[in-house]
Amino acid sequence: MRQVTDFSDERNKGWCVHCGGPYETDDHMPSKVFLDRPFPENLPVTPACASCNEGFSRDEEYLACLLECILAGSAHPDDVERSAIARKLRDQPGLRKRLEAARRSEGDGVLWDVEVERVNNVVVKLARGHVAFESGEPRLDEPAGRGFQPLLAMSPAVRRDFEHVPDLPQIWPEVGSRAMSRLFVTGVDVFDEGWQEVQSRRYRYRVDGAHVRMVIRDYLAAEVWWD
Q: What is the arithmetic mean of pLDDT over 14-31?
């Protein structure tokens, strides 16, 4: 990934962007479980405490495996595309059984019972990391709203609104932040239609003020926003 230098307020750095606790580890945004090797260079990282970094891992692993199973229509390791996820399904029979139990046939199709709380947990975690990294202003408060759904489930109008990038943000980011630098220093070549593409077909995101949008595995669209 191409990155720009961050000159935002130092007072907003040096502590966990998820809970305000001590800075004990670097947290990749997004977690590498959503990406394939070779990993992109210059992956975004944010400060985190060890408890938060470890605490989200299980839910992130669940979501990454769930998405592969949905795309494959099966929870069998031989059916999924990503080899790293296939290994997880083989090595963790409990997780595999959980996902197999979530799959059910209905008519000519297949439906999946999603553990919504776990997905929301991951979506908000990722959004906190992205807004802290891009804007230099971590948000520890509860979001004003959040949501997720498959891209294919969106109507054309909703999809256009989700993908649309405004010409200029209504609220400008902090002076010195990466978001401000992207607007006025680096130019449009840093963006793909305003989105940061971490890895093709795996993960992209964009931050507009305190509104974060993400697309995981070219399938799941998610957004989180703060007032």
A: 93
Q: Return the structure tokens found at 137.
A: 């202003």
Q: What distance in Å separates the CA atoms of residue 131 and residue 8, rounded to the nearest whole number?
A: 13
Determine the 3-state secondary structure of 207 from DSSP.
strand
Residue with tokens 């001590």: 22
Q: How far is 31 from 43, CA to CA, in rounded Å? A: 10
How high is the pLDDT of residue 187? 46
- 29-55, pLDDT tens digit by residue? 999 999 999 999 888 899 999 999 999
pLDDT for the residue numbered 200? 94
Taking each helix axis as running N to C, give the angle between helix 116-135 and helix 57-72, from 0 to 180 degrees, rounded to the nearest 10. Answer: 110
Q: What is the rounded CA–CA span in Å between residue 145 and residue 135?
A: 19
DSSP string for 36-72? -SSPPTT--EEEE-HHHHHHTHHHHHHHHHHHHHHHH
